[in-house]
Design goal:
There is one protein chain. The chain has a six-stranded antiparallel β-sheet, with no helix packed on it. Helix content is 6%, strand content 53%. It is built from three helices and 22 strands. It is globular. By secondary structure, the chain is mainly β.
Length: 272
């Protein structure tokens, strides 16, 4: 049982979320309407679905893990998640039609972790609620078994995974329904992986691809050892050529535990 203590942000105990195809969906008040947003800690910006609504025509381009995405920059006059409200927020338009088809749900946009920083958030997978903390929460009351350090790189939380004696940088992503591992790791650390016979269709912003599926026999993060996790192979070469911090994969945080995850921006630690 999670103890909600005096550090909870504002007067609202929690907001509900839905998990659809392993993606976390929350309702957000945006200007004068409410819409479904994907909570994506691996996103460094807020994206609005241009499939449903048109905004300004100021052009912008993003380098994503799937290549360059063209977009339009806009401003949101009012954005509210739980008791956290921000005004005049920058956002970018992109077509999320393929994500809507994947989820069979109308999606207003995608929101990243930077919106909540420095307010720590607890994703409670047992009650399907998000709890917000203005100050550092009392971690002992949650009974977590594991914790890992993370750092913010270009607005997204990242950590170091170890295969054998080598460390690799992975993004901690609530918007990924499965782990993604760079093809070079699978080639050079083959003893840690077992290929499965079935391939998988992956939907992301503006892209749909068929990729190979593997079992990760074991890997470690700090002093935490994890075993028998499923992943997909991904080539991050294009993303890493653009001058951003080099990454070797994406870790789906919803796949780390069935109970709950605390993203503590005060201590820069993730507990599960």
């Amino acid at each position: 049982m999670v103890v909600v203590n005096q550090f909870l942000y504002g007067n609202m105990d929690a907001i509900p979320f839905k998990v659809i195809n392993n993606l976390i969906i929350i309702e957000i008040d945006i200007e004068e309407r409410t819409g479904n947003f994907i909570l994506d800690t691996g996103s460094d910006a807020i994206f609005l679905n241009s499939n449903n609504r048109k905004f300004s025509n100021k052009a912008a381009m993003f380098q994503t893990v799937n290549g360059v995405t063209n977009s339009e920059e806009t401003k949101i006059s009012h954005l509210k998640v739980g008791d956290i409200t921000k005004e005049n927020v920058s956002a970018y338009n992109t077509n999320l039609a393929n994500i809507e088809n994947f989820l069979n749900l109308k999606i207003a946009g995608i929101i990243g972790a930077e919106f909540f920083n420095p307010h720590s958030i607890y994703l409670d997978f047992e009650s399907n609620e998000i709890k917000f903390f203005k100050n550092a929460p009392d971690i002992e009351s949650f009974g977590f078994l594991n914790h890992i350090d993370f750092s913010m790189k270009n607005g997204v939380p990242s950590t170091e995974l170890t295969f054998g004696n080598k460390k690799y940088t992975f993004i901690l992503d609530s918007g990924a329904s499965i782990h993604l591992v760079d093809s070079t790791i699978i080639a050079t650390q083959a003893s840690f992986f077992e290929k499965l016979t079935s391939d998988v269709k992956v939907e992301s912003v503006g892209h749909s691809t068929i990729v190979s599926k593997y079992i990760i026999k074991s890997f470690s993060i700090d002093n935490t050892i994890l075993k028998d996790h499923t992943c997909l192979v991904k080539d991050f070469t294009g993303f890493n050529e653009k001058g951003k911090p080099q990454i070797s994969g994406i870790l789906s945080i919803s796949k780390l535990t069935e109970k709950g995850i605390m993203i503590d921006f005060h201590r820069m630690k993730m507990y599960f």
